[in-house]
Amino acid sequence: MAELIIGLVVALLAVVLVLRTVRIVPQARASNVERLGRYLRTLEPGLNIIIPFIDRPRQLIDLREQVVSFEPNSVITEDNLVVHIDTVLYFQVTDPRAAAYEIFNYIQAIEQLTVTTLRNVIGALDLEKTLTSREHINSILRGVLDEASGKWGIRVNRVELKAIEPPPSIKESMEKQMRAEREKRAAILNAEGARQSRILTAEGDRQAAILRAEGQAKAIDTVFEAIHRNDPDPKLLAYQYLQMLPELAKGPGNTFWVIPSEVTAALQNVTKAFNGYIPEVPNGRNEVPNGRTPEIPPE
């Protein structure tokens, strides 16, 4: 029985010894080892062997890129306006030993250094430049933080200004200015559209007038060519004159027609065609009172 108990105790001590001797470090992690209170080495990812009860591993340190968002900070610009700035920091631990022994809390240290640098940079800029110079501010912050945090085993990859909040009064003024600018652009666009529409309308009217004139000219040329090509009989022309006489009488208040001498000559041609005649008037015009056709005496 005693031997069994001793065997169990030995086995338990062996298990504990193995557990204290073997250390498995995950990928992208690191762990500092202290021997009797002093830094000995840094454990790499994978299987590591240490001396139990003498070597003491410290907490794992993440070697991946990390993102930290800081609380909004109040910063005064050159024109004495208070703005609230949110910052986002992207950093990576490059030296686990320095990160563990050179600074107590590197995240808190970076945050305070960011606030101090922001106040120095924004204090030299007015509000307008602060709102339009984010890339410039980010570059300055990154340079200062990377230089200061290098001795802590930290590499600052990127610093971003997530938000810049001006005072409410300034924000209201900016909104009014932006609204006025949008209305101005809309008015310019509307005026340009109306001007273009008028130009297009005038161009269309001009083209339509040109087409109408060309059509009328073509129609006149066609009729003129047809008349001369067919050599119409004077009786046909006189008949066409007679067709137009009722149109002359459609006007309101017409009590008599004034017939030009050309029409009289045409009527004489028609009369001769029917073996009749129309008496001539010395002044070269024939008047038909009250729209009545004069009587034609027999030959």
Overview of this protein structure:
By secondary structure, this protein is α+β, with helices and mostly antiparallel strands. It folds into four domains: 2-62, no CATH class; 66-166, Tetrahydropterin Synthase, Chain A, CATH 3.30.479.30; 172-231; 234-289, no CATH class. It contains eight helices and twelve strands. Strands 2, 3, 5 and 6 form a four-stranded antiparallel β-sheet that branches. Strands 7, 8, 9 and 10 form a four-stranded antiparallel β-sheet that branches. β8 (73-76) and β9 form a beta hairpin. The longest helix has 63 residues, at 168-230. The model is unreliable at 276-299 (pLDDT under 50).
Total tally of structural domains: 4
Q: Report the count of strand segments.
A: 12
Strand content: 15-25%
Number of helices: 8
Q: What characteristic shape results from the CA principal axes?
A: elongated
CATH architecture assignment name of the largest domain:
2-Layer Sandwich
**What would you report as the Rg, rounded to the nearest angstrom?**
54 Å
Fraction of residues in H or I helices: 40-55%
Order of helices and strands: HEEEEEEEEEHHHHEHHEHE
Span between termini: 173 Å
